[in-house]
Predict the 3D structure of the following.
Amino acid sequence: MKRCSFGVLRLLFCISAVGFLFSCKSPQPEKNISNPLKTKKVNTMSMNVYQVKKTKVSSVEIPWESAIVLKDFSYPWEDDNPPELSFRALYDADKFYFKYEVEDALVLTYVDTNDKMEVVNSERVEIFFQVDDKLETYYCLEMDPLARVLDYKAAHYRNMTFDWEWPDKELVVATKKTANGYELEGSITLQSLRDLGILKGNTIHAGLYRGECVKLEGDKAILRWISWVDPKTPEPDFHVASSFGKFILE
């Protein structure tokens, strides 16, 4: 698993980059862009569905404008509206590409030894990948604005293997500061998604989340939890099957 600057990621995509925040870190635990396409939110047996469009990454840029913009995020455990947060994804013959755009007036990250567990006490966005309905195996990516990644394997309930890492060179994550917050962009090889049992045919079961860090005192963070899917749990909890939706690769 590789973390790079936004510029290096764009170089891997064969395009140039300007003004990106570099942060190559060793792995680390738990918006508004005009687009004519509307978010597709389909209810199939109470499951949220996001359509991932196929693209061809050119030598110029990733055509993010062709991706469906997902903005259906909420505070499931609060009676309030969250700040702007959007997600979009594309895929080609080799990779799954994703991008978060986050509104955050004060981006807070905890850094000491730069251990991957420091992501737990930092602002972050997350993607969880489900392998089976009972969550006997699932994989988690918690990614902060410094491009640090807490990647781990887990089993229900909350049996986490933090020394696990995404297969080497199969995951790339990069970040960029913006006037209103930050962007996080990444790519994952389709082969690694298949090998891990995540991509089955044209379907991926995934959860999309944000840990909004609103206060940081030393290594103690206060977080508000944002999710694409409301898991309907009494307390904040993404480690349940009801927090997952479905990606369909068109």
User: Anything to note?
Assistant: The mean pLDDT is 87. The helical segments are 6-12, 190-195.
